[in-house]
């Protein structure tokens, strides 16, 4: 039984509350001059590099946050999860998504039973079935190969698999394995979505995967009945057994629906919907599209983060650090950030005690430069919203145009490197006066800065790295038993480009400086100079990790 003592009643919480007043007197312009501080706020693991030096925090802040994690028994809670205890107390279940991507020889118990062999039995079944479909030994009712897949599910049965599919669609290795195949996802019950999903598809070559643990989810089952009718009307009722399979534990309803129970792929009640992409929910449709070998790399990437989360000390533990910073921003500094999971944002503790502090975040964002004419003025000149910038060293589809100063990807990354400093430093009235800006325009062109962000640099976006990213964004549960939200913040995109109105200085000044540096370093081997310690470190890592790019590459266009 969890303690009813709220975390806000502990001494570490009270110490952080008092410390907040000291932090409010500081500015990131000054904090970023402290090389020791910046260096201490950089963490590397398995190719991933995190720089959180642009958060409104000092080394003292982090020490106090580590003490808060200790007061919340975070390490013990992590161990409880891995040992299979029922930390999901509202449903009285284990929380063992980590078992879904554990090595075959791992031991992870739930209710006294090692569940890993069961997981691998299902994975082996998926591998066998997906290979038969892909090589044409499993065919449809008319003998034609099944090259198109529609996965029906909603919530976690849709969002996670779609996320991975979207990321893999442009990965060169995955593209090769997916040639001649299509994967579509149907979630919304709106008939327009059904029309879009079946548009251009032939029932003779289509396989439908119905994902519902209980096989009673209203939207999913209505969509499933609709596609069953689509198949039956074209090929006859008997064709359903060849053209529809299930991811479910309710074999009785699966068989009643017309699907052969032998073609049902199981998952377990200790798999929360938000984590189910690593179960048959995601692995089956993704294996049908890309082959099991690609999906297995995804699972290994996720497993890497799981082990890191379990074993790394807090000061080097990327998921824990991101979670603690989220707590700091939301519950102490009062900054909104993101809603991380479906069960978070509650106003009570696990014991039903009302929380006297903010515990939920608001999440929004866009990849790359897509948000430039919408909310970026808000994050620069409106309310303070902590941002996460996630960049990739090597593009899945590099583009080079002869005569350009930098490649398309370097152009994107110029903004990735410039934007965090723009948020941290801002632009003062004094600077504007020196630029001879009209007095009446100065309030409109002033940027206060001191807006926190972090940068996460990934080596590439292959199946393994996608697995890492997926686990990183989901390896921390709600941890309601601690009455604290140790959660991750979602990416605001690989970079941000501002072009309109008062925001043009980011593009025409800061990003231009980075662009010139990238060009000079690639073409003349110039050292990285003129930036603060953190940006210098990030730029240097980026250039070193992408040093195989030729100084003057020939024109290269996307290979898809």
What does this structure look like?
This protein has 560 residues and is α/β, with parallel strands linked by helices. The protein has three domains: 247 residues, Glucose-6-phosphate isomerase like protein, domain 1 (Rossmann fold, 3-Layer(aba) Sandwich), CATH 3.40.50.10490; 195 residues, Rossmann fold; 46 residues. The protein contains 22 helices and eleven strands. A five-stranded parallel beta sheet has the order 6-5-7-8-9, sandwiched between helices. The chain has a four-stranded mixed beta sheet with strand order 1-2-11-10. A hairpin with a 2-residue loop joins strand 1 and strand 2. Helix 6 packs parallel to helix 13, helix 7 packs parallel to helix 13 and helix 17 packs across helix 21. The longest helix has 21 residues. The protein is globular, with a radius of gyration of 25 Å. About 6% of the residues have low confidence. This is Glucose-6-phosphate isomerase.
């Amino acid at each position: 039984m969890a303690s009813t003592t709220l975390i806000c009643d502990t001494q570490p919480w009270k110490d952080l509350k008092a410390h907040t007043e000291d932090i409010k007197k500081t500015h990131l312009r000054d904090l970023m001059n402290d090389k020791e501080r910046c260096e201490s706020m950089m963490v590397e693991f398995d190719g991933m590099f995190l720089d959180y030096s642009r958060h409104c925090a000092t080394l003292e802040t982090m020490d106090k946050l580590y003490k808060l994690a200790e007061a919340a028994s975070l390490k013990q809670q992590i161990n409880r999860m891995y040992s299979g205890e029922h930390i999901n107390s509202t449903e009285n279940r284990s929380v063992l998504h980590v078992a879904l991507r554990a090595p075959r020889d791992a031991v992870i118990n739930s209710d006294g039973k090692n569940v890993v062999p069961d997981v691998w039995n299902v994975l082996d079944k998926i591998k066998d079935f997906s290979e038969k479909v892909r090589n044409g030994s499993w065919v449809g009712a008319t003998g034609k190969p099944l090259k198109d897949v529609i996965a029906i599910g909603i919530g976690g049965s849709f969002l996670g698999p779609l996320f991975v599919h979207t990321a893999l669609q442009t990965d060169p290795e995955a593209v090769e394995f997916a040639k001649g195949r299509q994967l579509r996802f149907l979630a919304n019950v709106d008939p327009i979505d059904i029309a879009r999903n079946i548009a251009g598809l032939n029932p003779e070559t289509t396989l439908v995967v119905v994902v519902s643990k209980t096989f009673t989810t209203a939207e999913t089952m209505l969509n499933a009945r609709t596609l069953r009718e689509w198949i039956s009307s074209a090929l006859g009722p008997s064709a359903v057994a060849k053209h529809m399979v299930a991811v479910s534990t309710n074999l009785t309803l699966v068989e009643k629906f017309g699907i052969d129970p032998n073609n049902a792929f199981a998952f377990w009640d200790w798999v929360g919907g938000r984590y189910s992409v690593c179960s048959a929910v995601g692995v089956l449709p993704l294996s049908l599209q890309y082959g099991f070998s690609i999906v297995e790399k995804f699972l290994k990437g996720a497993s890497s983060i799981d082990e890191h989360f379990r074993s790394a000390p807090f000061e080097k533990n990327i998921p824990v650090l991101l979670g603690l910073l989220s707590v700091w921003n939301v519950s102490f500094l009062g900054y909104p950030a993101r809603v991380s999971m479906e069960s978070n944002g509650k106003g009570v503790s696990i014991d039903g005690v009302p929380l006297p502090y903010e515990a939920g975040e608001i999440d929004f964002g866009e990849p790359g430069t897509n948000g430039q004419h919408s909310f970026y003025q808000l994050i620069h000149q409106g309310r303070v919203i902590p941002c996460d910038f996630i960049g990739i060293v090597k593009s899945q589809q590099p583009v080079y145009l002869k005569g350009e100063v930098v490649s398309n990807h370097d152009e994107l990354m110029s903004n990735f490197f410039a934007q965090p400093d723009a948020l941290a430093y801002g632009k003062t009235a004094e600077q504007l006066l020196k630029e001879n800006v009209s007095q009446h325009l100065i309030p409109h062109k002033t940027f206060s800065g001191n807006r926190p962000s972090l940068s996460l640099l990934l080596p590439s976006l292959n199946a393994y790295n996608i697995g890492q990213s997926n686990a990183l964004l989901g390896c921390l549960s709600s941890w309601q038993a601690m009455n604290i939200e140790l959660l991750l913040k979602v990416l605001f995109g690989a970079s941000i480009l501002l072009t309109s109105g008062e925001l043009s200085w980011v593009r025409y000044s800061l990003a231009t400086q980075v662009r010139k540096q990238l060009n000079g370093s690639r073409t003349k081997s110039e050292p990285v100079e003129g930036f603060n310690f953190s940006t210098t470190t990030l730029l240097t890592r980026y250039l070193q990790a992408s040093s195989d790019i030729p100084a003057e590459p020939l024109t290269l266009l996307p290979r898809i």
